[in-house]
């Protein structure tokens, strides 16, 4: 940073200084703001939410600080289910997730500490909210599971922070991920396990290297009895993402084989395909 600009327009600089102005005001007045709030303060200038997202991440990386140091808070969308975990907030409140419904995961700066009511047997991170709801209704209570859902799209910081904390503190507990058998599912898994490229300066605080890929794996679908008719066609967007991931030098060999298989068969599968077993 600063990034290159080929258009010759002054707008990128105006956008940058506007974000800095909003962040500076938030720090001086000690008022927290979200990226969404910043975007709506000057929609005509920013144009899209992505502009604000990228600028905030770039500024944090440039100044070698966390977004919370700029008084920019993440918006929570992840859910956690499991009565074994207690979340202690800085406000003094204690969140106690239950076994029958999802509890919104608070942002990291609001959390004081975690504690366990009883031992956790395993932690499962699920890509999709609909699958999350099915699992927490059907999971055996005797196994004391802890199930997390990231909501739609890629995981938010609050969910990643919780997964990282559980991975570090519960060394004997398996940390498992259930994602779609496509390139985007593997990319989401990569964000949890290795961190995102946009927040490389926070990898040590967010990457849960112990996470294991539970599924869904295309190479196992035939053995599980999933018929080819239940698979989805591989799109151009899927192909582009798969090829992008295959260019990563540190990609695990198993992931590389699964991506190559998708490109060869031109088929992918969503988690919901397992309901056909």
From TrEMBL:
The active site is at residue 40. Pfam families: TOP6A-Spo11_Toprim, TP6A_N. Residues 12-72 form the Spo11/DNA topoisomerase VI subunit A N-terminal domain. CDD domains: TOPRIM_TopoIIB_SPO (cd00223). One of its GO terms (molecular function) is DNA binding. SUPFAM superfamilies: DNA topoisomerase IV, alpha subunit. It is an enzyme of class 5 (isomerase). Keywords: DNA-binding, Isomerase, Magnesium, Metal-binding, Nucleus, Topoisomerase. Residues 122-276 form the Topoisomerase 6 subunit A/Spo11 TOPRIM domain. It is found in: Nucleus. GO terms for cellular component: nuclear chromosome. The keyword DNA-binding applies. Its cofactor is Mg(2+). One of its GO terms (biological process) is meiotic DNA double-strand break formation. It catalyses: ATP-dependent breakage, passage and rejoining of double-stranded DNA. Belongs to the TOP6A family. PANTHER family: MEIOTIC RECOMBINATION PROTEIN SPO11. This is DNA topoisomerase (ATP-hydrolyzing). It comes from Schizophyllum commune (strain H4-8 / FGSC 9210) (Split gill fungus).
């Amino acid at each position: 940073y600063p990034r290159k600009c080929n258009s010759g327009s002054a707008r990128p600089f105006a956008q940058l200084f506007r974000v800095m102005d909003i962040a500076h005001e938030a720090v001086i007045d000690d008022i927290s703001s979200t990226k969404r709030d910043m975007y709506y303060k000057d929609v005509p200038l920013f144009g899209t939410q992505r502009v604000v997202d990228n600028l905030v991440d770039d500024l944090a990386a440039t100044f070698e600080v966390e977004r919370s140091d700029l008084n920019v808070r993440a918006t929570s969308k992840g859910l956690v289910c499991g009565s074994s975990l207690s979340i202690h907030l800085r406000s003094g409140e204690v969140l106690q997730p239950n076994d029958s419904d999802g509890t919104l995961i608070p942002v990291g700066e609001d959390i004081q500490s975690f504690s366990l009511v009883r031992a956790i047997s395993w932690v499962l991170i699920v890509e999709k909210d609909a699958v999350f709801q099915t699992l927490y209704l059907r999971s055996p209570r005797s196994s004391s599971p802890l199930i997390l859902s990231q909501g739609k799209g890629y995981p938010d910081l609050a969910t990643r922070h919780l997964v990282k904390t559980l991975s570090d503190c519960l060394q004997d507990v398996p940390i498992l991920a259930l994602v779609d058998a496509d390139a985007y599912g593997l990319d989401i898994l990569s964000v949890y396990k290795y961190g995102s490229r946009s927040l490389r300066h926070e990898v040590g605080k967010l990457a849960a290297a112990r996470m294991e890929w539970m599924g869904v794996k295309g190479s196992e679908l035939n053995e599980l009895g999933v018929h080819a008719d239940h698979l989805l066609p591989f799109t151009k967007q899927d192909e582009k993402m798969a090829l992008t991931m295959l260019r990563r030098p540190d990609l695990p060999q198993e992931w590389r084989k699964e991506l190559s298989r998708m490109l060869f068969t031109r088929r992918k599968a969503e988690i919901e395909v397992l309901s056909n077993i």
